[in-house]
Amino acid sequence: MDIRIFETSEELDLYAAEIFRKLINEKPNAVLGLATGSTPVGIYAKMVEDYKNNKVSFSGVTTYNLDEYVGLTPDNDQSYAYYMNQNLFSHVDIPAIQTNLPDGMAEDPQEECRRYEAMINEHPADIQLLGLGHNGHIAFNEPDEHLSAGTHVVKLKEETLEANARFFASIDEVPKEAYTMGIGSILKANTILLVVRGSDKANIVKEALTGPITTKVPASLLQTHPRVTVLLDREAGRMLG
Ligand code: F6R
User: Fold this and answer.
1) Which residues contact residue 127 at a Cβ distance below 8 angstroms, ignoring those fewer than 6 apart?
2) Ligand 1 site residues, Cβ closer than 6 angstroms
3) Which domains, ranges and CATH numbers included, belong to the chain?
4) Is 136 in contact with 218 (CB distance < 8 Å)?
5) For the CA of 138, the nearest atom of ligand 1
6) Do residues 153 and 138 touch, judged by C-beta distance below 8 A?
7) Average pLDDT over residues 172-195
8) How far is CA 219 from CA 22, 43, 72, 128, 163, in A?
């Protein structure tokens, strides 16, 4: 594992964007596995900057996102499709047809899982970007006795529904399920780029990277992957070494 700790979030963003830029310039038809959440926002902003400064083109790139809510349309501002358009896709030259997320509106969720997993199998990511949840989750793979290998539907926990309720008109509108890549889908990527920021995640960073491999800390499974790069800000890395 290649672990790098940065003094500032901006330095981390620049470094991460450079990884993507170099990969795409070397391999214009690269496959990128992407994430949502607060962690990648600054990285996507730097990637957009690189595109605007003619340092990179996304015209040949294909992307696969980790997850999406069941039942949300791409124009719902809480959907991950909306997030990706806002933060990256609409600002660069990637054709919409080359961007992939599980289809929140699919009629048959099980069939949608099979379709998505088959695409990942056919086009494994050159690099998979990941954030880390406070409890060690990656994508929507929450700590449990068992984890699923492939793309599957998860029921969101009551606390997640309550936390998300503030973004919706009423709690009934909050999605109760989500599609997520499984741990196996994630580990198929050629390289993994795990990014974590903030002192509130320092403990889980240490557990995930240096603790035992356990389904109780889904991110600990990343220790089994041969090419993982971890980018941390000073606060997230403060419990290491
Ligand atoms: C996002 C995702 C989640 C987040 C994680 C961290 O697509 O799959 O696992 O990466 O919850 O979220 P933030 O970055 O908001 O702290």
Assistant:
1) 19, 20, 23, 30, 32, 33, 189, 190, 191, 192, 193
2) 35-39, 66-67, 131-133, 137-139
3) 2-233 (3.40.50.1360)
4) yes
5) 9
6) no
7) 96
8) 26, 21, 27, 13, 22
First to last CA, the chain: 14
Label each residue of 76-118 as H, E or C.
CCCCHHHHHHHHCHHHCCCCHHHEECCCCCCCCHHHHHHHHHH
Bridge partners, residue 160, by sequence = none
In ligand 1, the atom with minimum distance to the C-alpha of 67 is 7
Residue 196 Cα to ligand 1 middle (Å) = 10
ipTM higher than 0.95? yes
- For residue 6, the cross-strand partners are 233
Q: With a cut of 90, say whether residue 161 has pLDDT above it.
A: no
**H-helix segments, 9-165:** 9-26, 41-52, 80-87, 109-122, 158-164
Q: Can you give the pLDDT at residue 160?
A: 82
The three-point CA angle 39-217-165 to 5° equals 55
